[in-house]
Amino acid sequence: ENTYETILVRREGRVGVITLNRPKALNALNEQTMNDVVAAATELDRDSAIGAIVLTGSEKAFAAGADIKEMGSKTASDMYREDYFAAWDGFARLRTPKIAAVAGYALGGGCELAMMCDIILAADTAKFGQPEITLGVIPGMGGTQRLTRAVGKAKAMDLILTGRQMDAEEAERSGLVSRVVPADSLLDTALEVAAKIGGMSKPATQHAVETVSAAYETTLAAGLQYERRVFHGLFSTKDQKEGMAAFAEKRKANFSHE
Ligand code: CAA
Predict the structure, then answer these.
(1) Does the predicted TM-score (pTM) go above 0.90?
(2) Hey, whose CA ends up nearest to atom 54 of ligand 1?
(3) What is the pLDDT of residue 148?
(4) Which single residue of 102, 136, 163, 238 could bond 62 by disulfide (Cβ 3.0 to 4.6 Å)?
């Protein structure tokens, strides 16, 4: 499975683990990394034996941003023609729950990649930021939109306009990350959370991802309507019958992910 240049991929039970692996560039996200992550994550997403995906980096850096050296000399017309960053949409859209396990730097595109995941777990060493303003540009992989929705306008403007870094504690307080854990237990915690999610009915977790994500993109009335339709629709799955029968029979559900 490790046919990728810039990432490592492994499976642990129902969890797929993708590790960004460009240590010399602090996991800066170049085009190759984008293609590798999207391809690997898409394959895991389609596999019914996989119920959750963990995306992580190194101790020092989750990812220090898009690759500045690759971008630096491009023209606006290059960027438009290549639709630079557009392929990341393919990662963000995947419905298998994605957990970003962040230690060290998650800057620029690194922070934005973490925000494309459904849950962010942070090591106490994590540092989040959108430093693009210091490079004479703005975030381009979703930062102006996803960060604002995650932490609110005040904090998002502060971070995006100053380019400053936010530590793990501030990130948790702001609602960007769901938990902060000691750096040496980050991966174990991420694998534990992912295994727990992976043990649930995959159709149910995927629909949960889709419906919660819809809360970002729609009105309350439309979102509630969507939720109700999805909730009703899940009664067509074997897992709903199994989950509710198991409760009544006082046993653990054995989901078939159908
Ligand atoms: N792109 C390309 N290379 C990068 C990189 C990036 N984003 N971040 C780090 N690197 C490279 C460095 O150039 C350096 O390479 P060399 O050894 O060949 O010089 C190597 O990784 C190690 O980095 P440093 O020596 O700088 O490490 P440090 O510990 O002194 O500093 C850091 C760490 C503060 C994270 C610093 O590397 C840094 O500021 N990186 C850039 C952060 C940034 O601006 N990110 C935003 C990128 S733009 C973007 O992401 C656009 C978008 O919206 C998608």
Answers:
(1) yes
(2) 109
(3) 98
(4) 102
For strand 15-20 and strand 7-12, is the pairing parallel, antiparallel, or unpaired?
antiparallel
Q: pLDDT tens-digit profile of 152-167? A: 999 999 999 999 999 9
Strand pairing report for 52-56 and 98-102: parallel
Tell me if 104 sits within 8 A of 57, measured CB to CB.
yes
With b for 16 or more beta-carbon neighbours within 10 A and e for fewer, the 114-145 pattern comes to bbbbbbbbbbbbbbbbbbbeeeeeebbbbbbe
CA-nearest of 144, 150, 142, 61 to 106 is 61
Residue 36 is which amino acid?
A: D
**ipTM above 0.95 for this complex:** yes
For the cut 90, the answer to whether the pLDDT of residue 3 exceeds it is no
Determine the longest span between alpha carbons in the chain, in angstroms: 64
Closest approach atom of ligand 1 to CA 68: 1
DSSP letter assigned to residue 183: G
Q: Position of tokens 């899940």?
A: 234
Q: How confident is the model at residue 1 (pLDDT cuts 50, 70, 90)?
A: low
Q: How far is CA 130 from CA 13, 106, 136, 152, 171, in A?
A: 35, 9, 12, 15, 13
25 Cα–ligand 1 center, Å: 7
The tokens for 237 are 């799955």
* Interval between CA 230 and ligand 1 midpoint (Å): 43
Spatial separation of the C-alpha atoms in residues 129 and 98, rounded to whole Å: 20
pLDDT in tens, 47-102: 999 999 999 999 999 999 999 999 999 999 999 999 999 999 999 999 999 999 99
* Residue type, position 110, single letter: G
Task: With cut-offs at 50, 70 and 90, classify the pLDDT of residue 14.
Answer: very high
